[in-house]
């Protein structure tokens, strides 16, 4: 068995003199969830398009499901399913008709086709709306239908390009459950997202994409370890107390606007007690104490020098 579902090396893509993918290496283990994380314009969709044979790379090589992207394009296509960033749902058709159309396109006729459609409607909790036009579906339902359509052919590798962008927290959670269930069946997931929490929740491995380059790769925990450590935040009720506390605590950085003091520390109860004791010894008392452990937002900032929301034009 092939234990590597996707292996890409040095993928490059440019439009004119604008480099979009600047040498991308990716390895995804079979049956795992891989997340490509990056802000708008980072090159996520371009990467998906290249790996799904929709777009030809200018350089580099890749094997998907054990097949070469360029010389075995058909075999790659047979093994994969793609749910694009923008839904492929036909609004005029009902949910059921959309799925049937997919089955027909893949020559799943008669009983076999019907069975797949029924199974998917049930699995995605779309039975009640199966006979309603997709135009009447909510964003979450459309996303589910779109993914269901991708699964008609039972692909071994599924590409999901921003599957939860624009969904409310509840629909997002439903989508996460569905993705997890897919891997439980052995499906490999390649997922792009701009939500750090999503990558953190789902992915076995995460690659951070920034302006066409992978700037970091690893498990969520590994990435979190690459940022400056955790800290304790003390909030005071007035500026004099804040200033006094800042003077007696080494390495502390005050924020006069929020009256918060940031103190390096791991938040262990021992260090926390020592911190509060020291304040008390100077007749100072924090109004609120909170412990901040680094999240993936911090990772992005630490690795790229800019926040996830500020995709810079090149
Ligand atoms: N056909 C094209 N011609 C020229 N430039 C393109 C083309 N397709 C994409 N680009 C550019 O490539 C860059 C990466 O685009 P891409 O769609 O891969 O980003 P993305 O990470 O998917 O962003 P988003 O989160 O907004 O979907 C962008 O700057 C985009 O303008
Ligand atoms: Mg995109």
Automatic annotation (TrEMBL):
A molecular function (GO) term: ATP binding
Matching Gene3D superfamilies: P-loop containing nucleotide triphosphate hydrolases
SMART domains assigned: AAA
Xref: PROSITE patterns: ABC_TRANSPORTER_1 (PS00211), ABC_TRANSPORTER_2 (PS50893)
SUPFAM superfamilies, alphabetized: P-loop containing nucleoside triphosphate hydrolases
Topological category with respect to the lipid bilayer: Peripheral membrane protein
Domain ABC transporter: 6-236
Superkingdom of the source species: Bacteria
Subcellular location: Cell membrane
Assigned keywords, A-Z: Antibiotic resistance, ATP-binding, Cell membrane, Membrane, Nucleotide-binding, Translocase, Transport
Keyword Cell membrane: yes
Stored PANTHER family: ABC TRANSPORTER ATP-BINDING PROTEIN, DOXORUBICIN RESISTANCE ATP-BINDING PROTEIN DRRA
Protein name per its UniProtKB record: Daunorubicin resistance protein DrrA family ABC transporter ATP-binding protein
């Amino acid at each position: 068995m092939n234990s590597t579902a996707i292996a890409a090396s040095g993928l490059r893509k440019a439009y004119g003199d604008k480099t979009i993918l600047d040498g991308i290496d990716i390895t995804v283990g079979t049956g795992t969830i891989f997340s490509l994380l990056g802000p708008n314009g980072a090159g996520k969709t371009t990467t998906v398009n290249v790996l799904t044979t929709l777009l030809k790379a200018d350089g580099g090589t890749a094997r998907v499901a054990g097949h070469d992207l360029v010389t075995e394009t058909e075999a790659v296509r047979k093994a994969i399913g793609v749910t694009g960033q923008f839904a492929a749902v036909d609004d005029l058709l009902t949910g059921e008709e959309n799925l049937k159309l997919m089955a027909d396109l893949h020559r799943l006729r008669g009983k076999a086709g019907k069975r797949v459609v029924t199974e998917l409607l049930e699995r995605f909790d779309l039975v009640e709306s199966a006979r309603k036009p997709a135009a009447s579906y909510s964003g979450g339902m459309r996303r589910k239908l779109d993914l269901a359509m991708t699964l008609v052919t039972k692909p071994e590798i599924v590409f999901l390009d921003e599957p939860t962008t624009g969904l409310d927290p509840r629909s997002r959670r439903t989508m996460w459950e569905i993705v997890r269930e897919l891997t439980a069946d052995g499906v490999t997931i390649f997922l792009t997202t701009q939500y750090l929490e999503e990558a953190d929740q789902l992915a076995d491995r995460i690659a951070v994409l920034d302006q066409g380059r992978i700037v970091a790769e690893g498990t969520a925990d590994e990435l979190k370890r690459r940022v400056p450590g955790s800290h304790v935040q003390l909030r005071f009720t007035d500026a004099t107390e804040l200033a006094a506390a800042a003077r007696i605590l080494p390495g502390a950085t005050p924020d006069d606007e929020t009256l918060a003091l940031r103190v390096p520390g791991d938040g262990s109860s021992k260090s926390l007690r020592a911190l509060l004791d020291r304040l008390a010894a100077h007749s100072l008392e924090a109004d609120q104490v909170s412990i901040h452990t680094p999240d993936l937002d911090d990772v992005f900032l630490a690795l790229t020098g800019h926040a996830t929301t500020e995709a810079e034009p090149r």
